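RECORD TYPE: inverse folding
INPUT: structure tokens
STRUCTURE:
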């Protein structure tokens, strides 16, 4: 694969490098990335950031909710939560795409690997159900399908020929009240040089501070 100078220059062993364009899988799975105008907006009046870049290459994504029902051990309820978690993954994959690409520095093909996910599952009553891990699997397995992993939609006999960049360390916990099923969050790794180029060009935050949003728009 030769789609990114950052990825090509990374220290990933040749045996573990992706063999596909991430955007081919995104298209195949029907993930809609939306438009620049809808996704690249101002940070003015925001309470939190959606993404924070660290110059080491770690990228922290805030959580987003998925599903509309509290979870229990009922199989149909868990199925609803699993699907909601998958939809939440699509939201964060979309957010990460625009966070990486809005200034023209990189894109999702520059993700080296996913690092750590946390799935906070709504299980009223103190979290006495076992729904946390199977619901959060919807989130984790979607990242594997996009970036490669043993539980990817493209895996055969537990191995994805495209690699392992989507599998991650994870915690999945319940015991929360809420009008949704799950709120997952994730940390990914990109090449340090890309992170530093992004920070130099437009700062470490996404959405963008107003002055940086104006700069990015002016450069398009």
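DESIGNED SEQUENCE:
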């Amino acid at each position: 694969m030769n789609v990114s100078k950052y990825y090509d220059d990374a220290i990933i062993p040749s045996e573990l490098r992706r063999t596909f364009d991430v955007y081919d899988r995104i298209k195949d799975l029907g993930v809609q990335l939306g438009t620049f105008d809808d996704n690249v907006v101002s940070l003015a009046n925001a309470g939190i950031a959606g993404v924070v870049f660290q110059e080491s290459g770690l990228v922290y994504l805030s959580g987003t909710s998925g599903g509309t029902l509290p979870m229990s051990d009922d199989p149909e309820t868990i199925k609803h939560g699993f699907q909601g978690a998958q939809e939440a993954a699509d939201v964060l994959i979309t957010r990460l795409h625009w966070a990486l690409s809005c200034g023209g520095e990189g894109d999702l093909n520059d993700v080296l690997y996913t690092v750590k996910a946390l799935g906070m599952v709504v299980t009223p009553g103190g979290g006495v159900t076992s729904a946390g891990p199977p619901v959060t699997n919807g989130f984790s397995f979607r990242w594997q399908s996009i970036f490669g992993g043993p539980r990817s939609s493209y895996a055969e006999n537990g191995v994805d020929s495209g690699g392992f960049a989507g599998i991650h360390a994870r915690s999945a916990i319940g015991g929360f009240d809420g009008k949704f099923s799950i709120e997952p969050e994730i940390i990914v790794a990109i090449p340090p040089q890309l992170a530093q180029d992004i920070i130099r060009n437009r700062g470490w935050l996404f959405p963008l501070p107003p002055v940086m949003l104006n700069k990015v728009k002016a450069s398009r």
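NOTES: The CA atoms of residues 24 and 146 lie 9 Å apart.
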